[in-house]
Amino acid sequence: MRTGTAAALLVSAFLFTPVATGWAAWGEAEDDSEPPVAGQPADFDGAVGSYKIKTEARPTTLQAEDTLLLTARIIGSGPAGRLPRRPNLRRLPDFKRQFAIEDLPDRDRYLAGEHTWEFHYRLRPKSLMPPVKQIPAVPFVFFKPHLIPPELGYQTDYSRPIALQLIPRAIVQAQPAPMPDQVYELMEGPELLRNDRALPSPGPAAVLLLLLAPPALCAGWYITWRRLYPDAARLAHRRRSRAARQALEALHAATNEDGAPKTTAAVLANYLRQRADLTAAEPTAAEVADHLQRSGFSSLLAARVAEYFRKCDAARFGPEPLRSGTDFVPAAVELILALEADREVGE
Amino acid sequence: MAAVFSFVVLPGWLLASSLPAGLQAVSAADNLEQAVSAFHKGMAARGKPDAVAYFRQAAGGFDELRRHGARNAALFLDLGNASLLAGDLPQAILAYRRGLRLAPNDRHLRANLAYARDQVAYPSPDHLGRPPIDSWPPWLPRPTPGFTWVLLGCAYVVGCLLLTRWWMTRNGRLMFAGTGTCMWAAVLGAVLVVQAWRNHREEQHPLVVIATDDVLLRKGNGRSYPPRYDTAVNRGVEARLRYARGEWLQIELAGGELGWVPQSACLVEVP
Questions:
Q1: Which of A52, A265, B100, B182 could bridge A312 with an S-S bond, Cβ 3.0-4.6 Å?
Q2: pLDDT at position B52 over 80
Q3: First to last CA, chain B
Q4: What is the mean pLDDT of residues A137-164?
Q5: Does pLDDT of A210 surpass 80?
Q6: Which of A127, A194, A197, A245 to mutate: most B Cβ within 10 Å?
Q7: DSSP result, B71-89
């Protein structure tokens, strides 16, 4: 049993370290096998020993843009740890220019009996003028020890170029695909003789006219409207007073309920504070009349406003509050419009 | 001398000046009839070797009409179809593109251009010269300059009217509507500016279609210059003309790649 195990280990050691069989001879001269730095080529990949390189491609007759498989075989032997590595074809300018290169490391293998390393690539010849005619030679640089001086040990072996026959696609596609039916459609009639030139873009003058015409039209409309509806225009102008607009909106929201005198008086007082600089927080009727007269409003209007405030006070605080008889909201609206009209005249 | 002028020279000149217009009209109508007839013959011979010759004859007739001043989407569709059926892919692409400039919303032209582009052998894997994928939704009409101008005018006028009415009545809704409409008008104005810029660019840099296979884009205007790209472009690849120098054109592909190609290897859209 022990003998069998040892034999198995020995066999597996030979199988999985294939280099061991081929490089027994290098054991004695390992010290001399270290490649010197001096004279080392740029594309040296560390392989030590003696090697040859061969390449094989299939197919060699193909259409432009089709792919082919290239196998590079490196045959020879060397010390363990200094084995050949996969040649990098992308470093070779001829390959890079003529082919799209894909490495296929899964297919790589070592044939121990033949002392051969196989490296596989997929190449796609590019569409070039003149077309690709061959796979160029692949160089393999290795160091051969025991030569004096040692830098002479750097040697390069080249594979033979492989001729390619690239068939242009245009020739290959002799049978075109059937055209769709839409291509067989034909427009007929005299309209085929028409000249539909694209409309020219308007010039600067036309653009200026387009820009100015609508505002001019609108200005004309506005002037006409003012002449035809002067009251509406005046009302609109009044509404432009922010204080008046806010007060009118507040009054529109109010109703002639029990709280109307208090609400409308507050709205009117607030309006007067904004519009006529009234300072009192809750002005009396007398204060309002006095202030409006001093502010330049007509004495009649001042009296009307004061009277309104008096009615509000009476409704709120009098012994018999007025539940009806006075429409506080419309009256307040009327007063605000009258005050705006008076202010306009003053202005 | 005056008599000679009156009886010989003047009538001769009048005849000479009046005949060409009439002849031209007759010639154009004849050309159209012949082209249409050739196309029908090609249809009848569909699948046979003779068909290509008929379609080529039809394409020649339609192109002759174009050279005599006829320009409309239907003519360019016919020219494109006849060229495509005659195997002249670059001419077909050029015709469809010309038609689409006049009628950007023509579905037949767009579908046939898409089919023609599918026939172009773009070099893989870098797809040099392949036009970008059109992301415009097919259901959405493309705004033509005329339509955009009309829309802009309407939006601007309505916006101004709404704002004027708001000035009269102080109705807040009118102000919002008017401002919104004017903003739409501004957006349409921006669209017009972009369209004008595109048109200007297309006029400055006309369309070029590569007419032969395996054309290399070179670094200069001569065969002695090295190729700018390893990959050659094939017939049907579209580009824009940048400069012309002698018999060479500098073109720009859809991806922005620049290079010089011989004029003989291109079709150029002459406005």
A1: A265
A2: yes
A3: 46
A4: 88
A5: yes
A6: A127
A7: B-HHHHHHHHHHHHHTT-H
Q: In terms of residues, how long is chain A?
A: 347
Q: Is A218 on the interface with B (CB under 8 A)?
A: yes
**pLDDT, tens digit (0-9, with 9 covering 90-100), for B84-122:** 999 999 999 999 999 998 888 898 999 999 999 988 888
pLDDT in the model for residue A346:
52
Q: CA-CA distance, B262 to B39, in Å (whole number)?
A: 32
Shortest Cα–Cα distance, A286 to chain B (Å): 35
Residue A157 pLDDT grade (very low, low, confident, very high; cuts 50, 70, 90): very high
Is A100 in Cβ contact with B39 (below 8 Å)?
no
Q: Which of A243, A207, A325 is nearest to B193 (CA)?
A: A207
User: A48: which 2 tokens?
Assistant: 């030590």
The residue in chain B having the minimum alpha-carbon distance to the alpha carbon of residue A184 is B81
Q: For residue A320, give how far its alpha carbon lies from the nearest alpha carbon of chain B (Å).
A: 41
Tell me how far CA of residue B189 lies from CA of A209, B142, B196, B203, in angstroms: 15, 16, 10, 21
A28: which 2 tokens? 């004695």
| Contact check, Cβ <8 Å, A245/B170 | yes
Q: For residues B164-171, give the mean pLDDT.
A: 83
Residues on chain B touching A191 (C-beta within 8 angstroms): 72, 74
Please tell me which of the candidates B28, B84, B167 has its beta carbon nearest to residue A183.
B84
SS3 A22: helix
pLDDT in tens, B63-91: 999 888 888 999 999 999 999 999 999 99
* Closest Cα in chain B, distance from residue A59 (Å): 20
Is residue A44 within 8 Å of residue A84, measured between CB atoms?
Answer: no
Specify whether the CB–CB gap between A91 and A41 falls below 8 A: no
b or e along B181-217 (b: 16 or more beta carbons within 10 Å of the residue's beta carbon)? bbebbeebbeebeebeeeeeeeeeeebbbbbebbbbb
**What is the predicted pLDDT for the residue at B23?**
47
CA distance B84 to chain A (A): 8
Percent of chain A with pLDDT over 90: 19
* B-interface mutation test, from A98, A126, A192, most B Cβ less than 10 A away: A192
Q: Are A65 and A168 in contact (CB under 8 A)?
A: no
Q: How far is CA A194 from CA A56, A108, A307, B102, B182, in A?
A: 64, 68, 83, 12, 37
pTM: 0.53
The confidence band for B124, taking pLDDT boundaries of 50, 70 and 90, is low
Optimal mutation site among A167, A179, A183, interface B, most CBs of chain B within 10 A: A183
The pLDDT > 90 percentage for chain B reads 44
